[in-house]
Amino acid sequence: MTAAKVTVPSLAERKASSEKLVMVTAYDATFAALADDAGVDLILVGDSLGMVVQGVENTLPVTLDEMAYHTRLVSRGASRALVIGDLPFGAYQVSPEQGVASSIRLVKEGRAAAVKLEGGVPMADTIEAITRVDIPVMGHIGLTPQSFHRMGGHRVQGRSAGAHAGGRERLLADAKAVEQAGAFAVVVEGVPRSLAVELTQTLSIPTIGIGAGPECDGQVLVLHDVLGLSPNLFKFAKAYANLRADVVDALERYAHEVRTGAFPDDDHSFH
Fold first, then answer.
1. What count of Cα atoms within 13 Å lies in the side-chain half-sphere of residue 25?
2. 188: nearest Cα among 225, 152, 149, 157
3. Which of 136, 127, 72, 61 is nearest to 99 (CA)?
4. What is the mean pLDDT of residues 160-177?
5. Which residues of 56-65 are buried (b: 16+ CB within 10 A; e: fewer)?
6. Is 198 in the active site?
7. What is the rounded CA–CA span in Å between residue 121 and residue 126?
8. Beta bridge partners of 137
9. What distance in Å separates the CA atoms of residue 25 and residue 180, rounded to the nearest whole number?
10. What average pLDDT does this structure show over 158-174?
11. In the prediction, which pLDDT does 264 show?
């Protein structure tokens, strides 16, 4: 692990050296600082904050104002990791010009070093337009949460052959379109392991997997899942701690001491 600042150009070098990239989501300065201290390479301020922080069903209600706010918080907490702001639903689909304007907001107001957007072939022009104004773009293909209604929920993509939406050939075309449009990396979510292997071997840019097997150039998970704070995990997620139980236990003990008069005691009072 190196203490050097992670930059967009350095990610291409990491793919060439086969050194895996580590990415997590974060939504505030405290957790961003913890991820930074742990040596995480990339911090995604994901629109997953809709479900993780706001408690809504999916990512669709999250606004650009909310993303700019949370990206700004994360940027304050991270000094080494590359901070990537997620473009929320409705902030880039209308036109490439809208995508550029929204990306500029995440860079200026959120202090993001890069932005992420979902979609392949249909979003190629938007990716190209954003990179043309010197804002690095991370793509996102496969299971794209903003396509929740079209997919009928969060469903694995690329299991069937064909060029239809969600088909294997379509995802290969999406990946190539994202790369050719100038993206510096691409998240590959919810696809069969064999397809992720083919995508990683085909593309010259790093692939960041989530529910896509171990052969991708890197992996990303929601930080709350990693820490065991989420009540339910998707099949692809793994909890490396059980902080949900620890938090509940701590709050129960605090409540008990307040109710019994044990807290605050003399050591926690001013004289």
1. 24
2. 157
3. 127
4. 91
5. eebbbebebe
6. no
7. 10
8. 115
9. 26
10. 90
11. 97
Pick the closest to residue 182 from 248, 126, 107 (CA basis): 126
Q: Name the active-site residue from 118, 179, 189, 198.
A: 189
Q: What is the average pLDDT score of the chain? A: 95
Give the C-alpha separation, 166 to 142, whole Å.
Answer: 7
Tell me, letter by letter, the H, E, C secondary structure of 122-175.
Answer: HHHHHHHHHHHCCCCEEEEEECCHHHHHHHCCCCCCCCCCCCCCCCHHHHHHHH
Chain centroid to CA 68: how far? 15
Contact present, 119 and 142 (Cβ < 8 Å): no
Q: Which two tokens stand for residue 55?
A: 């408690």
Q: What is the mean pLDDT of residues 30-39?
A: 98
pTM more than 0.85: yes
